[in-house]
């Protein structure tokens, strides 16, 4: 019987954009994330976002997953304020059949403060994560998943260029209110390496429009 392979090292570097800087998650982000998590929470119906009192434990859990090679967690830092306004991560790394290097990675564990939603920050964060995965790690695909009932999240995922592949039934833990201990159906999306150049160009055009609108003078 072959010896099980050790987990792949998964170290996400700082990823710098115009709107957002993705920094490896650390306890120094706790105070900002606690404040961000307590803004309007109405968009979190299908997403687990810690309460302020849970943020330190949340960071510990993410760092434990990172130590096991399962996750590369990030704080999403708004460049205009320097404030951590959410989190995201690479996770579920899968190796090539040879065992060398990454074949695929998922982007998940994503949430943003209500004040950062709809600002273009999520689009740029996804762009930075996708670009690093395809152009530095050389992956063949990037996955994204969400609760199949979460229309808002599904629209956002499609909006950054991912293609819907189907619904995995009873796939993972539900975070919906009143569904503790139950499983959810998960909608799965992906971008492949052959699709990335077109996806990158679309995201760059979208981000250029966002930056132009943000910098336009008001009257």
In angstroms, what is the radius of gyration?
A: 17 Å
Largest sheet: 8 strands, mixed
Q: What structural class do you assign from the helix and strand content?
A: alpha+beta
Question: Strands of the largest sheet, in order across it?
Answer: 1-2-3-4-5-6-8-7
N/C terminus separation: 71 Å
Secondary-structure element series: EEHHEEEHEHEEH
Count of individual helical segments: 5
Q: Helical amount among residues, as a percent range?
A: 25-40%
Shape: globular
Unreliable runs? 1-6
Oligomer: single chain
Number of strands: 8
Mean pLDDT, nearest integer? 92
Q: Could you tell me the strand content as a percent range? A: 25-35%
How would you explain this protein's 3D organization?
With 219 residues, this protein is an alpha+beta fold. It contains five helices and eight strands. The chain has an eight-stranded mixed beta sheet with strand order 1-2-3-4-5-6-8-7, with helices on both faces. Helix 3 links the parallel strand 5 (102-112) and strand 6 (141-147). Helix 3 (121-135) runs antiparallel to helix 5. The longest helix has 20 residues, at 196-215. The radius of gyration is 17 Å and the shape is globular. Mean pLDDT is 92; it is low at 1-6.
